[in-house]
Amino acid sequence: MTAQGWAWLSAGLAIGLAALGTGIGIGFLAGKSVEAVARQPEQRGTIQRLMILGIAFIEALCLYGLVVAILLIGK
Known about the structure:
Strand content: under 5%
Helix content: over 70%
Order of helices and strands: HH
Number of strands: 0
Number of domains: 1
CATH topology: F1FO ATP Synthase
Low-confidence stretches: none
Structural class: mainly alpha
Number of helices: 2
CATH superfamily: F1F0 ATP synthase subunit C
CATH architecture: Up-down Bundle
Shape: elongated
Largest sheet: none
Mean pLDDT: 94
Oligomer: single chain
């Protein structure tokens, strides 16, 4: 396999694993947020704000994986 082939394979793995991790992380976060709102409905606004902030940080990790994949393809 050529160096270009390895770069394409690595790029696919980078974005694939980043997306997989992001999906699992957001799934856990959303599930725990729903449980927290079910326990304390009066804190819904605070929990929702923290959940959205957490989702933004998790999505940033997936974007880093995308940047790495694009850099690998460009090599």
